[in-house]
Amino acid sequence: MYVLIVNPVAGEGRGMKVYQELKQHSLYQQKNCRSFLTEYQGHGKALATQVAQMYGTQIKAIIVVGGDGTLNEVMNGLKTFPAMNVAIIPAGSGNDFARACKIERKPVTLFKQIINNPSWRSYRLGKITKETSRKQTPLFANSIGIGFDAVVAKQADESKYKKYMNLLRLGMLSYLIALFQVLFTYQTKKIQLVIDGKPLVFQHTFMVTVTNHPFFGGGMKIVPHAKMDSGRLYVLIIDHISKWKVLFLFFTVFFGKHTTFKEVYIYEASEIKVILNEERSYQIDGQTGKIGSFTITKDHLMRKIHRF
Ligand SMILES: Nc1ncnc2c1ncn2[C@@H]1O[C@H](COP(=O)(O)OP(=O)(O)OP(=O)(O)O)[C@@H](O)[C@H]1O
Fold first, then answer.
1. CATH of the domain at 18
2. Distance in Å, CA 31 to ligand 1 centroid
3. Where do the TM regions start and end (predicted)?
């Protein structure tokens, strides 16, 4: 059997549309597909754990219909089920993981491919270990960021206009509005990192993002040379940059040309310690919150993902 975990509100309702399209396909009945729709934030994680416990090895694959946030929840729900095959049918607004996987974009074609001709390849997720609660080790498929990106995402999520923009199917525009709102009041901060044992201090950090692959924020090539298979993490730091230059950088990052800016630092590493003397805003696969000091590594387990 195949289990579909669907976020109906992903991509401003695209999740629901894609699900309805897939449900009508003959393969859906033939291959004994069952769907579970998420009803609230965090539900994807609970559903993934429940279906894995309930159906175990009967499941040939869990197919996530949604965006990066839903995928993140499902992967965290499957933490103790590393052998489970997972595929994503992108239906979110950003879909950076699907972009990195180089998969087919048309939902039905992709659905057929996942069932008839899948390409299960290993993938090591990123993992964070919080200093205060070492037992909590959230996983990430894309990236984790401290600083400007997290504050922008939070501002957009909490804004009234996001709701209206979503109704008008202009969800990405709410992030652009939030970017301008935050940019001119945003205060850079000192940050201490230990990258593979080497201590580094940045005095006026605009943002620090650690990623598994090149894509970020809906197609920006944040670390253009990042390789999904390298087993390494990629760190991008923007330090001591003027507000106006940020706007310029924002346009160049879609082409991966920001890496030549003197304010941009990129490292490749296996372990990154982020030392914070107060809680800061962060984003993990686009979901926002507050966090104190933590360490980022690759999870040692290999997960099977449909990708090329
Ligand atoms: N029924 C629901 N109602 C409200 N929120 C939900 C529901 N189901 C899931 N969610 C939440 O929706 C949020 C957004 O999901 P997701 O990230 O998949 O879509 P997206 O934001 O459109 O895509 P992307 O992350 O690729 O930009 C997640 O935080 C998820 O927990």
1. 3.40.50.10330
2. 27
3. 167-186
